[in-house]
Structure formats: C-alpha cells, structure tokens
Amino acid sequence: MQKPTFFYRNSLSIVLLTFMVIFLIGQFFTGWKTENNELIEEGQAALNFGQYIQSGHFIQATFENWESEFLQMMLYILLTVSLRQKGSSESKPLEGEEDVDKEPAAHAKAPWPVKKGGVWLSIYKHSLSIAFGILFLLSFVLHFYGSWKDYNVDEVIKGHPAITAGEYIFESRFWFESFQNWQSEFLAVFSIVVLSIWLREKGSPESKPVDMANDETP
User: Fold this and answer.
1) Half-sphere exposure at residue 199, Cβ-oriented, CA atoms within 13 angstroms
2) 55: which of 89, 134, 139, 152 lies 20 to 30 Å off by Cα?
C-alpha cells in the first residue's frame, strides 16, 4: 500500500493556513487603500507598504480579530470539560468517562511530559488551554496598542491632543471593538453546538453520523 503523501497527511492544516494567508493579504491591501483614502481626504500624506504594516489601523484590525478567536477557543476548550449539550456532536456523552478524562499513563510513544511526570505533566495536561490563553493575551495587548495608536492619529488630525494608554483603556471605542467580536465568536460556537443536534454533514468529524437520533449524544 502506497504511503500517504505529505499533503494528504497535513491537508487540513495546509488548506486552513493558505486561506488565512490569502485573506490576510486581502485585508492588508484593502485596509491600506481604505486608510490612505481617509488620510488623503484629511489632507495627510498617504502611507507606503512599510508604514501601513506598522500603523495602528493595520495592527488593530488584525489583532482585534485574532484576540476574539483565541478567547473563543480557550473558553470553548475549558467549558467542554464539564458542560454538556444533549444531542450535540460537540459535547461529551451525558454519562460515563471518556478517554480524555482518564489520568495519563506513561508508555513508549507517550509525549515526553507524560514520561517525565511531576510539574511538567501538570502543565501538559492543560497545555492546550494555556497556549490559547497566552495567544489571547498577546493578541489583546497588540489589539489595544494598535487601537490606541490609530485613535491618537485620528485625534491629532482633528487637532486634539493625543492621550496616554492609561486613558485609552477607559475609552468605549476599544471595548466596542472587542465586544463586537467576542459576541460574534460565541454566537458561532453556539450555532455549531445547537445545529449539530439536528443537522448532519456526512464524513465530517464535527457532525454526528447521519442516521444517529437527534437526542443521542455521540
């Protein structure tokens, strides 16, 4: 039997990363054009590529979205440990213990933290949520920085004084940017949790088997 190719073995991550890069490039060029149009209308000089990628407009727009994605994934991972949804493919069964609930046991092919034990194993047991938590915090800080920088550019153009980061943390604009993304992420997760009770997608691990009863939790 022929060994699966590298692309076949990694096709899901490759395709997802490709989509991300394509859309990020699209965001960059459309955002660059939008920002320059607004600057020119205000009588300011247009930004070149290098200036735009360092601008608050680009940084804020990018990390505002990344922040909400990482928050969603972190909380979803943590919530699915103990919470259930009857009939949803996204939920653990209502009763019984899953393999993911069992205490890890060292074996020949186990990851090294499992073999090492102690504090390394304690961290590794929660490393997925920790990683997403760190990514969320980094994105949150960069979103804040970009939004603050972009806000001050607008204020200076209008002839108003720039404000400090400490002052900007209390500005409704920053929190509006965050909340509008956070709510949409949890709406998306809620949708797949609930819709997967009744709807199916043959062949997808995110769906229950097509012939499974609606009220049955896989």
Assistant:
1) 8
2) 134
